[in-house]
Amino acid sequence: MTSRPLELALEASFEQLSDVVPANIGVAIARPDRTYSLGRWWSGVAWSTIKVPLAIAALRSD
Question: So which domain of life are we looking at (predicted)?
């Protein structure tokens, strides 16, 4: 079974969300072998997504 039906459902759901949010939004899901992107916002600062990896790195360095 491929993940394409799940991807299509996710795309449709994200499109519904995008229609009601008064801004350009986007999300990227990255793994070592693939990046999957949704939305119309393709570049910019990742305000919240950077906090968790930095916190984990800080904890590991202690």
Answer: Bacteria
Give tens-digit pLDDT for 21-59: 998 888 888 878 988 889 887 777 766 677 788 888 889
pTM over the 0.85 mark: no
Tokens matching residue 39: 């939305």
* Cβ atoms of 23 and 11 closer than 8 Å: no
Q: Which two tokens stand for residue 61?
A: 């360095």
Distance CA 18, CA 32 (A): 27
- As a whole number of angstroms, the distance between CA 7 and CA 9 comes to 5
